[in-house]
Amino acid sequence: MKAIFKILILIIFIFKFTISFSQKNKDKEIIGQKVTIKIKGTKTKGAKTKAAKIKFRARVDTGAKTTSINAKNIKKKGKYVKFSIVNRKGKKISITKKIIDERVVFNAEKKEKRIFVYLTLVYKKTSRKVLVDLNDRSTSTYKVLLGRNWLNGKYIVDVSLK
């Protein structure tokens, strides 16, 4: 009798947890580990500068706290930093942003000092300003690594989705 009672309590608990979890996450979009995003910046042709967007195939990394982007030609100028981002197809845009932070980041290979800036990332039709670190990801398959700060309660990652 006690065993049946315990099983019944367990079933009720699982049922309540499932309902609570689904209600809590009903407004979150389910995404896969790999998504296509656009980054807003500027494109310079001669003396002309215009707004531009560049597409990236990005990898979602729930283990990474902050989003990381492949940045080249990083040049600090006082409180600002100028850098270029290049996608897999070789499309390139230059961006100048205010430096938000500089900190030491530890990864599997080494520790290094990185610059953090806010960039506008566009996923589908949703545009959000996100803190990103500038990093040489030229040898990485994915030039953008989307961290938990990008997920930020908006998405649930389903690793079985492609």
Structure characterization notes:
The chain is an alpha+beta fold. It has a single domain (31-157), classed as Beta Barrel (Cathepsin D, subunit A, domain 1). It is 17% helix and 54% strand. It has helices at residues 2-24, 148-151; strands spanning 29-31, 34-45, 48-60, 67-77, 80-86, 92-98, 101-106, 111-123, 126-135, 144-146, 155-157. The strands form two sheets. A six-stranded mixed beta barrel has the order 2-3-10-4-9-8. A two-stranded parallel sheet has the order 1-11. The radius of gyration is 21 Å and the shape is elongated. Mean pLDDT is 82; it is low at 19-23.
Quick overview:
This protein has helices spanning 2-24, 148-151; strands spanning 29-31, 34-45, 48-60, 67-77, 80-86, 92-98, 101-106, 111-123, 126-135, 144-146, 155-157. The chain is α+β, with helices and mostly antiparallel strands and 162 residues long. The protein has one domain (31-157): Cathepsin D, subunit A, domain 1 (Beta Barrel).
Record the strand order, biggest sheet.
Answer: 2-3-10-4-9-8
Q: What is the tally of beta strands?
A: 11
**Beta-strand level of the residues, as a percent range?**
over 45%
* N-to-C span: 47 Å
Report low-confidence residues grouped into runs of 5 or more.
19-23
Largest sheet: 6 strands, mixed, barrel
Outline:
elongated
Global mean pLDDT:
82
**How many domains in all?**
1
What is the CATH topology? Answer: Cathepsin D, subunit A, domain 1
Query: CATH first level: which class?
Result: Mainly Beta
Structural class of the secondary elements?
A: alpha+beta
Q: Report the radius of gyration as a whole number of Å.
A: 21 Å
CATH homologous superfamily grouping: Acid Proteases
Question: At CATH's second level, what is the architecture?
Answer: Beta Barrel
Number of helices: 2
